[in-house]
C-alpha cells in the first residue's frame, strides 16, 4: 500500500503529522491521540486509517469522514 511511501511523526503517543497525500495509514497500537492537523493537506477522500482496536482512531476517522478499517 501507499503507507510504505509516506511517513508519520509520533511524539508521546500522539500522531502529530502524516506526510502524504492520501492512501493507507496504519495507526500504531500505542497511539492514544491524533492531532487536529495530523492530516492537513491530505486528500481525506483517498485516505484509509487502519488501527488495531483503537477506539480513538475509529472515533477520529468517523468524525472526519475518513474511511476506517480495524485490523
Kindly describe this structure.
It contains one helix and six strands, in the order βββββαβ. It is mainly beta. The strands form two sheets. The chain has a three-stranded mixed beta sheet. Strands 3-5-6 form a three-stranded parallel beta sheet, covered by helices on one side. Strand 1 (7-11) and strand 2 form a beta hairpin. Mean pLDDT is 84; it is low at 1-5.
SSE layout:
Blueprint: E1 7-11, E2 14-19, E3 23-27, E4 33-34, E5 47-51, H1 55-63, E6 67-70
Morphology? globular
Structural class: mainly beta
Q: Kindly state the percentage of residues in helix.
A: 10-25%
Q: Report the order of strands and helices.
A: EEEEEHE
End-to-end span in angstroms?
14 Å
Radius of gyration: 11 Å
* Estimated share of beta-strand residues: 35-45%
**Average pLDDT value?**
84
Q: What labels describe this entry?
A:
38% strand; three-stranded mixed sheet; single chain; three-stranded parallel sheet; 6 strands; 1 helix; 71 residues; disordered N terminus; mainly beta; globular
Question: How would you sum up this structure in a few lines?
Answer:
The chain contains 1 helix and 6 strands; from the N terminus they run βββββαβ. The chain is mainly beta.
